[in-house]
Input
Amino acid sequence: MKRKVFALLMAAVLVFAMTACSGGGDATTAAAEGTQAAGDETATTAAGAEETEASGGETTGTIKVGMVTDVGGINDQSFNQSSWEGLQRAQDELGVEVTYLESHQDSDYATNIQTLIDDECDLIICVGYMLADAVNQAAQDNPDQLFAIIDDQTYSDLPNLACLMFEQEQASYLVGIVAAMMTETNTVGFVIGQSTGPMNEFGYGYVDGVLSTNPDATVLQYDANSFGDAGLGKTAAKDMATNGADVIYHAAGGTGAGVIEACQEDGIWAIGVDSDQNHLAPETVVTSAMKRVDNASYDITKAVLEGTYTPGVHTYSLEDGGVDIAPTTDLLPDDVLAAVEEAKQAIISGEIVVPATQEDFEAKYGPDVYQLD
Output
């Protein structure tokens, strides 16, 4: 933080000097734009924020927060975008300076993190479990640098890493109820971005929600092994529709955009993920399993600003509003909404425990129902 104090003192001197040279008048200080390393064609940065003005027109000091996306990119209409929206809210409400670097391939992760370290960010937020190894190495090499990672707790014992986790199986269970009640063919679909422990939590919750509501339903399942291939998502959804699916849920980041497009073209229901994706296809996206990644990135930023940052696991659940179905409910019949609300209260009370692991899921359904783990 000493470097920040020094920088602010120098800024004050410069402002004073410019004011004196201009003969008086108000001076405003804008935060620097994020810059891209020379010759680096794989990273993209976003603008920072203006320093906030206190009463009387004085500028106040702030912190700088950098974010690294996974390969889904900043405009994935999913958790990268949601995390960035949380930082933009922090910029507007807290006056912090924010920037991001966009990753286009796995090899960008370590490079982008190092760029933000060199840029003297007070907090670096890494979006997605695919950045886990890169942030682990960076955190060990830079013990005075604060980090946060979304959707991974592999290295939660590090003293400078906050792991922002979500009970995503709970929201997935709720949209599973929606799928089970909206299907007319008794066949629904699920497209996953990649089969990993955290991602399979979406699948366990969804399939449990479907089968708990409609035991006769069939759940078609597909692992795209990509979070940034909309074409592959579209092909997968088209194949599911051909095989009778009339509701398809995706947990696939940017790949899911193709799922939604296919559902729109084929006149079947789509279920979005992470954010309210109804705006992508208002007559098609019946609901979304929301993870308030925006709240998580905002909260950890505020904690650093206020000096209350703590490392370790921070979990967001249905009980605290960290996960839920989307607020857009125009396409949901009253009986479906009532069933979702009843299940929500049962989960919060502990009456319903949604399986989040392979062991728990198979204890209820056996080894053959969920096919992606």
User: Anything to note?
Assistant: Confidence is low (pLDDT under 50) at residues 1-60. DSSP finds eleven helices and twelve strands in the chain. The chain has two domains: 2-10+41-166+293-316, 168-290+333-365.
